[in-house]
Amino acid sequence: MTQEEKQLLLKDLCARLPYGVKCHFKYGSAEDDVTLSCIDNNVARFEYGWYGKFHVIIDPQYIKPYLRPMDSMTDEEYREFGYDVLRYTPREFDWLNANHFDYRGLIPMGLAIEAPEGMYKTKPE
Q: 106 and 112 in contact (C-beta within 8 Å)?
């Protein structure tokens, strides 16, 4: 794992922090899915069972976010986002982060995991 990849993961997680990004973490014998609650320098912090507050270094061997591939965008999301934009503005990046889309290509790089369908569902059917 290169330092550039670790920095890319850190930047991505920081941008997604306000939106309740879910991550898979593995550290020693501890392994689970958690919602990231804080990032301090390059350390991810979250609540974990009876351990209480838990933290791991932001590194793909320890923690990976669950993200949605861009091609999983529904027709409704496609219209809401306005996918025909040529350049993304801060509003578009905020929307992509809030909806957990992998616009940086972290999944194919092995830095993120494809989110199972419905993981981030917030609207009632």
A: yes
Q: How far apart are CA 105 and CA 114, in angstroms?
A: 11
pLDDT of res. 124: 47
Facing residues of 65 across strands? 23
Q: Taking the model in full, what pTM does it have? A: 0.89
Distance separating alpha carbons of residues 33 and 47, to the nearest angstrom: 11
Strands 63-67 and 52-57 come out as: unpaired
**CB-based contact 114:101 (threshold 8 Å):** no
- In the predicted structure, residue 79 carries a pLDDT above the cut 60: yes
Phi, psi of 7 (to 5 degrees): -65, -40
